[in-house]
Amino acid sequence: MGRLSRSVGLALAGVCALPACAWAQEPSAQAVATAEAFVDQVTQGDFAAAAAMFDETVAALMPAARLQEAWDGLVAAAGPFEQRTESRATHQQGYDIVLVTCRFGGGSVDLRVVLDGRGRVAGLQFVPTATSAEYQLPNYAHPDSYTEREVTVGEGEWALPGTLTMPVGQGPFPAVVLVHGSGPQDRDETIGPSKPFRDLAVGLASRGIGVLRYEKRTKEHGAEVAAMLDRLTAREETVDDALAAVALLRTTPGLDPQRLYVLGHSQGGTFAPRIGAADRQIAGLIIMAGAARPLEDLILEQLAYVLPQQIADPNEVAKQLAQVRAQVERVKSPDLTPDTPREELPLGIPASFWLDVRDYRPAEVARELPQRLLVLQGGRDYQVTEADFALWEQALADRPNARLKLYPDLSHLFASGVGKATPTEYMTEAKHVAGEVIRDLAEWILEPAAAAAPPGGGRP
């Protein structure tokens, strides 16, 4: 979901020192002044001065050139920087945490700056600004028909807080694990004012399906991920925690262990076949806007789509695309090793991750799996496009238990819209997952496995 901005988030996840917390009544004036000075240096393009404020750990992870790449990616996604507006701070576990709100052409973004006891920047993350308006339930949610409770996914150092949304009644009910897109995601997969995973949870639970959603590891354990960033693969980022979530549902009273599903969105959809291959007792896989092409190719394609919308100078667009193209070729090179510097790779993502995924072809893996498969795609999606959907169609054409559907008017978030999709769409008005998607998901999950779709599935 929002793969361009999300990829920037992945690059920054390793230097996000602390999880989100409640804000104090009285901000620290010195912390706010220091954080605002740092942000001013970034927004003015003085990346060397900004990087000089990093502590030793962050300085090693993010030299000035990589900080500039992250900022350029944010501007490409959120629109031109306009001004710094407000700041708020709190103190936690020896750190000052300051949210510095900045307004861009496409909306507001918070620069979350973590300061250590010496006033050095010990963490940095770009996060959508929380809106003052409370989340409004979609019209397909019926609160009297479900309950919610806190659960823990996994155990030990990687344990994750989550929410289990359960239908009212005795069951046993089918259930779904929701698997996030790239970057440090919360359990609602919040982007801007939208919360698609919360929509899915309340919508499906209203129709008699349990739903488990949880904080992503790169968000909940940012400091620990930073310590192993050069060893990070898709297994640590996504797969292991999804498998732990399925294991939790198998032992949850009121749920049917024979009807447990994994729903992956965006990068989560791309890795859903890996999750299904690791646990073949999963009843089915739901792939929502999952890429079927190599991820490095999608990054280049997305930037080619977005940069001309944000940068007026075509020479500068060409320069930036040439740099990313060289990084993509580095990923594909047989000379890529675990020691290849992140600065030479797309979005500063470590070589360990690229070595893990560059030869992964999710549609081909899915073709060999025994589980039921449902592939959904939005026609207005520019992050993952109909070119990917066509590959899923081709790979699954002979699968009698696979179904595919394209929604012409829906975005990457499976929300309705008109006209050409842009990154700013995510940063403005809150939009819910479309009701027809909730209906289609529920009907597919609840139908008997014997009533699988005819071979090929296909477009409506």
Task: Describe the fold and architecture.
By secondary structure, this protein is of the alpha/beta class. It folds into 3 domains: 126 residues, Nuclear Transport Factor 2, Chain: A (Roll); 241 residues, Alpha/Beta hydrolase fold, catalytic domain (Rossmann fold), CATH 3.40.50; 61 residues, no CATH class. Helix content is 37%, strand content 21%. An 8-stranded mixed β-sheet has the order 5-6-8-7-9-10-11-12, sandwiched between helices. Strands 1-2-3-4 form a 4-stranded antiparallel β-sheet. α1 runs antiparallel to α5.
A few lines on this structure:
This protein is of the alpha/beta class and 460 residues long. The protein has helices at 3-13, 29-43, 47-51, 56-61, 64-78, 196-205, 217-220, 222-227, 234-250, 267-270, 272-278, 295-310, 314-332, 351-357, 362-367, 386-395, 435-446, and strands spanning 81-92, 95-104, 107-115, 121-128, 146-153, 160-167, 173-179, 210-214, 255-265, 284-288, 372-378, 402-407. An 8-stranded mixed beta sheet has the order 5-6-8-7-9-10-11-12, sandwiched between helices. Strands 1-2-3-4 form a 4-stranded antiparallel beta sheet.
Descriptive key words:
460 residues; alpha/beta; Nuclear Transport Factor 2, Chain: A; Rossmann fold; 8-stranded mixed sheet; 4-stranded antiparallel sheet; 17 helices; 12 strands
